[in-house]
Structure formats: structure tokens, C-alpha cells
UniProtKB/TrEMBL annotation:
One of the protein's GO biological processes: phosphorelay signal transduction system
Record's protein name: Response regulator
Domain Response regulatory intervals: 12-128
Sequence intervals crossing the membrane: none
């Protein structure tokens, strides 16, 4: 942890977070805005840092080992040299009594987790722009509060508690806005999904009345089928049998054409400039006869250029090949 002397630095923020990942994310966010940041992994480390320098703001998680955020705030606010440092606690606010505990610990502000980055920065900027409060001159007052059917008697500084309650309300509004955004986004996604499903059904309808059989084959041994249109029934094969691997497509190809087809597919697959190719070969049908097909294949590759799938259509061209 860095040391900056005992004078308050208006751009220096102490963050207290036991999660290294969350601490680094918050530190990076604040430093990107020009703030100097010191990170402590616990309340104990935070107090050690505060003995070396006085930051303009403390942002602390609540749930931490050794000392939670409430106790840290209580320690800071009980020290006459530190009590004017604003304390922001990061909380899920899953328990309404967190508000009571925050009032008792003289917490200045709450920010809900997961926090919106812009909202957090706006709160930090507001704190930094505001005057340093001399809260040590304000007296504690006892207050009786009824919350969710429970009565509480707390010792608070009213001026601080108003700020805490205001930030709690502000967070509730922020959460509500975020929920509305998420609901709107979900509706948008659902509408896009509905349109996509409709288009897929339309495409399936077109495929089913088309003589061309659509397929997707994995670029693996025996070319396992991932998708085949139901009109493969024209060759007396059930799509379910092909999808389940009970019938392998490679076995359907006529034995005299199989080696050539495999060699051509291998050649096209190795050529990374090849995106599609066509082949004509014979297949054995479930009826026991032989048909000629025109196989028009599109090559699908991953980000490394490795072929992962073959997709395309197969069209019966027996009449053209054999004539009337």
C-alpha cells in the first residue's frame, strides 16, 4: 500500500475489498478517471493505511474477513482525525437492516452491487466536488425506527443519516431504472427471437416443399449429421435416424464413389480459400435403388481456419444424369 503523509489528498481514494478481482476492477475504473487509488484487502489493512495517509474518500465492501465494512466505518468515524472522511459502502442491500446498521456505523453513502460504473463515478465525483464535512462537531442522537415490523433504537448523526437514506433511495431508483432497461432489453430480445423463429419456420416450410435436402455435417469421421431436413424421406431415410447416427451419411454414398468424394472433400477443406464446392455422386436409397445427387456444400471454419462443419443442400439429379 502507498503512503502519502497525513494531509488529506482530494484525489486520493482508499478502496477496501477482499476480492482481488473486484478490487482491481474498481481500482482500474477510478485510476482511468485520474484518481490516485490505494487498495486494502481487509478492514485491518485499511486502518494500517489510514495511519499513513488520509484519503479523500473510502469505498469499502461490507462482507470481509476480520472486520466488515460497518465496523471499519465505525472505527473511522470514532477517530477525530478521520471521521470527516466520507465512507461509501458497496452492498447488495439484500437485508433491510443493512440500512439500520449503516446509520449506526455513520456510513455516508451506499452503492448497490453490482454497481453501474457511470453511477458509481458520478457519486464519487459528487463527493470529491463537495466540501469536507466537519462531522466530529455533530452530536449523536437516539432515534426509534420501525422497519418491516421490527422496532430499532439507533444512535445516529441526523445530518449523516439523511445522506445515507438519500443514497439508499437513490440506489433504489437506479435499480428500478436498470430493471426497466433489462425488461425492455428482454422484450427486444424476445421479439427478435420471435421473428427469427418465424423466419426459421418459413424457411423450413420452403425446404420441405423443395426437392433439395438441407444438411449440416460435422467435419469428423463419418460426417455425423447435426441437421437434415425432413424431406430426406424422398430417399426413404428418416431424419431422426440420421441425427441419431443410426444411419451414417458416409455409408449412404455408393461404394464406387466414396473414395473420390472423400478425397475431393479433403482437398477442398485444405484449401483455406475455398468457401463452397459442388460434387456429383451416387447414393444408395432406403428403397434399394441408386440415385445421382448434386451436393452443394459450404465450408464452415472456426477462428483458426479449421474446418468444423459442412452445410448445404443435396439435389436429386438422376434424371439429368441418366436421361429419359
Amino acid at each position: 500500500m502507498t503512503s502519502s503523509g497525513n494531509s488529506t489528498q482530494r484525489s486520493h481514494i482508499l478502496i477496501v475489498e477482499d476480492s482481488l478481482t473486484q478490487s482491481m476492477l474498481l481500482q482500474h475504473l477510478l485510476e482511468a478517471q485520474g484518481y490516485k487509488v490505494t487498495a486494502a484487502a481487509s478492514g485491518t489493512q485499511a486502518l494500517e493505511a489510514l495511519a499513513a495517509f488520509k484519503p479523500a474518500l473510502i469505498i469499502s465492501d461490507i462482507v470481509m474477513p476480520e472486520m466488515d465494512g460497518f465496523e471499519l466505518s465505525r472505527r473511522v468515524k470514532s477517530d477525530k482525525n478521520l471521521r470527516d472522511i466520507p465512507v461509501i459502502l458497496l452492498t447488495a442491500l439484500s437485508d433491510s437492516e443493512d440500512v439500520i446498521r449503516g446509520m449506526e456505523a455513520l456510513v455516508d453513502f451506499y452503492l448497490t452491487k453490482p454497481y453501474d460504473e457511470d453511477f458509481l463515478l458520478s457519486k464519487v465525483e459528487a463527493v470529491m466536488a463537495g466540501p469536507v464535512e466537519e462531522n466530529h462537531n455533530l452530536g449523536l442522537q437516539k432515534l426509534k425506527i420501525s422497519l418491516w415490523g421490527k422496532n430499532h433504537e439507533v444512535s445516529i448523526i441526523p445530518e449523516l443519516s439523511l445522506g445515507l437514506l438519500a443514497s439508499t433511495y437513490e440506489n433504489a431508483i437506479q435499480i428500478n431504472r436498470q430493471l426497466h432497461k433489462e425488461i425492455a432489453e428482454r422484450k427486444r430480445v424476445e421479439e427478435e427471437l420471435r421473428v427469427t423463429v418465424k423466419r426459421l419456420k418459413e424457411m423450413e416450410s420452403i425446404i420441405e416443399i423443395s426437392p433439395a435436402v438441407a444438411f449440416v455435417r460435422r467435419a469428423e469421421e463419418n460426417w455425423p449429421i447435426e441437421f437434415v431436413s425432413d424431406n430426406v424421406l424422398q430417399f426413404d431415410y428418416e431424419s431422426e435416424d440420421l441425427l441419431a447416427g443410426q444411419i451414417k451419411y458416409i455409408d449412404i454414398i455408393h461404394p464406387e464413389d466414396r473414395e473420390r468424394v472423400l478425397a475431393e472433400v479433403g482437398k477442398y477443406s485444405q484449401d483455406k480459400d475455398t468457401e463452397e464446392f459442388s460434387q456429383e455422386y451416387r447414393i444408395n436409397t432406403g428403397y434399394g435403388d441408386v440415385r445421382w445427387v448434386d451436393d452443394r456444400t459450404f465450408v464452415r471454419r472456426n477462428s483458426k481456419g479449421v474446418v468444423t462443419h459442412y452445410q448445404g443442400i443435396i439435389l436429386d439429379v438422376t434424371e439429368r444424369k441418366l436421361g429419359p
